[in-house]
Amino acid sequence: MSNRDQLVHKEYRDLYADYYRSPEEWREKREIAADQTIGYLTDVIGTARYGKLLDVGAGDGNVLTQLNRLRIADELYAVEISPSGIEAIRARQLSGLCEAQLFDGYHIAYPDKYFDLAIAIHVLEHVEHERLLLREMNRVARHVFVEVPLEHGLKVRRSIADGKRFGHINFYTPDTLRSLLASSGLTVTECRVGASSLRYEQHVSGRMGGFLKNTVRNVALRISPRLAPWFLVYNGYAYCECS
Which residue in 40, 141, 147, 154 is deepest, having the highest Cβ count within 10 Å? Predict the structure, then answer.
């Protein structure tokens, strides 16, 4: 039995195999979410630029496309568990992309500290053994950036039910995200909470519904940054120094 078979249950291997041969609506949603992610990333790194950057669980390459456009790194690399994702990434023919590899979800086939930055965008909520993956990212990189949905609030039962079709099996608060990163050997230098963008909310909920949801989330976060994630879903993002 391979490591992949041991660490990734067949149910999830099957789910992700063709995950990125999805309806056009999902592809558009991922493109909008990638723009949002770049906003979170630049919020913590400012104008910093990197030599080598690895996207772990790179999906179909939407975030890589934005990174390539903005020249945030000289060289881009990707590892992804889904064959359909790797096909989609390679089809983009990104000028800065050096390599896109299929991996088993945990073992990253690069030397220690090969990358200046490794990112995992909406990946950890899918991972059966989060710390194994985070420690591997810690090994291969000098810095780590992660983004997850903060769904472990008052309506966590609804989050669990809604997330099943997407493979969400882990649910976070800002505190549990910080604890997970620290217990994986990472030094958290920034851990922030962000509301989804107006464009994202309007794509999901329509023009007026999206405007109202975006307004409520942002106002609640300003009034009570500690309590808001308990009542409403946000995104958590963190920048870490590796050991």
Answer: 141
CATH number at residue 180: 3.40.50.150
Residue 24 structural domain: 3-195+234-241
**pLDDT above 90 (res 68):** yes
C-alpha to C-alpha distance for 194 and 36, rounded to whole angstroms: 10
H/E element, 84: helix 83-91
Distance, CA of 199 to CA of 36 (rounded, Å): 9
The type of residue at 138 is N
Q: How far apart are CA 97 and CA 188, in angstroms?
A: 28
Q: How far apart are CA 113 and CA 60, in angstroms?
A: 25
**Distances 148 to 69, 70, 130, 177 between C-alpha atoms, Å:** 23, 22, 12, 8
At residue 9 the predicted structure's pLDDT band, cuts being 50, 70 and 90, is: confident
**What pTM did the predictor assign?**
0.95
Answer for the pair 80, 70: CB distance below 8 angstroms, yes or no: no
Determine the angle formed by the axes of helices 62-70 and 24-45, rounding to 10 degrees: 40
Q: From CA 159, how far away is CA 141, in angstroms rounded?
A: 32
Number of independent structural domains in the chain: 1
Q: From CA 195, how far away is CA 216, in angstroms rounded?
A: 10
Cβ neighbours of 3 (radius 10 Å): 11
pLDDT tens-place string over residues 89-141: 999 999 999 999 999 999 999 999 999 999 999 999 999 999 999 999 999 99
In a domain, 67, yes or no: yes
